[in-house]
Write a structure and sequence with these properties.
There is one protein chain. The longest helix is centred in the last third of the chain and has 15 residues, at 183-197. It is built from nine helices and six strands; from the N terminus they run βαββαβααβαααβαα. The chain has a six-stranded mixed beta sheet. By secondary structure, it is an alpha/beta fold. The chain has a single domain, classed as 3-Layer(aba) Sandwich (Rossmann fold). A hairpin with a 2-residue loop joins strand 2 (50-56) and strand 3. The structure holds guanosine-5'-diphosphate (GDP) and magnesium ion (MG). Magnesium ion (MG) binds at residues 24-25, 40, 46, 65.
């Protein structure tokens, strides 16, 4: 097939957000299919944003790694926001990385912080990536749960966390970045991202100022990968 009518020939900008050590750089690598794209590790302190481009499953991606916010300083937030709007004009999807089991008060505050400084598009354009799935599985097994199910983890979240996930229409994916062969979950993340870019407020160019939110259908349908 050579004719393509979907937005697959357009670039999808995936911006990695989250706390330091939440697995942003490694999640970027998993999506890019290369462990050499972004440097990762607790000892690596990413001081500035970095961009890598790739074509994955016939989708053109730009993956933007960010330093990660811990201090919630206004200055850092404004710098990040400015960087995002300068490097990616449209089709911006945020991958909010949270280490499984670390969905605490601080993560809740972080999300509120992003909503405040990135704006309402953040809610409409975010997919939560729960990293360190492997550690959660082995911890659960060590506690006698033979076949831990990720949905059971979601069921343990408190009301506040569920309310926050609801802001993202429960768009989340668990991820084990240490595993090779993550193609299926990467496809699912790209598919979700692509569906989100079809919403007009996300697909259009982002001016320096916040876009007005628009009411759009939220349905996330599956899409075909060849
Ligand atoms: N076991 C495990 N370790 C992970 C996973 N994702 C990231 N890490 C590790 O967590 C640490 C922080 O990851 P990194 O991507 O550098 O976090 P960042 O600061 O948010 O960019 C590194 O040691 C990674 O190897 C995962 O899914 N499973
Ligand atoms: Mg990093």
């Amino acid at each position: 097939m050579t004719t393509e009518t979907s937005s697959s020939d357009q670039i999808i900008n995936l911006v990695l957000l989250g706390r330091k050590g939440s697995g942003k750089s490694r999640t970027g690598n998993t999506i890019l299919g290369s462990n050499e794209a972004f440097k990762f590790g607790y000892q690596i302190e990413t001081k500035s944003c970095a961009i890598e481009r790739a074509s994955r499953f016939e989708r053109n991606l730009r993956v933007i790694d960010t330093p990660g916010i811990d201090t919630f300083s206004l200055e850092e937030s404004v710098k990040l926001r400015k960087y995002i709007s300068q490097t990616a004009r449209k089709n911006i999807i945020y991958l909010l990385c949270i280490k499984i089991g670390r969905f605490t008060e601080e993560e809740n505050n972080l999300i509120k912080h992003y909503i405040r400084y990135i704006g309402q598009d953040f809610e409409k354009a975010t997919i939560v990536i729960f990293t360190h799935l492997d550690e959660w599985i082995s911890d659960s097994q060590d506690q006698g749960i033979l076949e831990p199910k990720f949905e059971d983890f979601i069921a343990t979240l408190d009301k506040n966390s569920i309310q926050l996930l609801n802001k993202f229409d429960m768009r989340y994916k668990p991820l084990n970045n240490r595993k090779s062969g993550n193609d299926e979950v990467v496809k699912q993340i790209i598919c979700m991202a692509e569906q989100l870019t079809r919403q007009s407020s996300i697909s259009r160019a982002v001016p320096q100022l916040q876009c007005e939110p628009e009411v759009e259908s939220q349905s996330i349908l599956c899409c075909n990968f060849m």
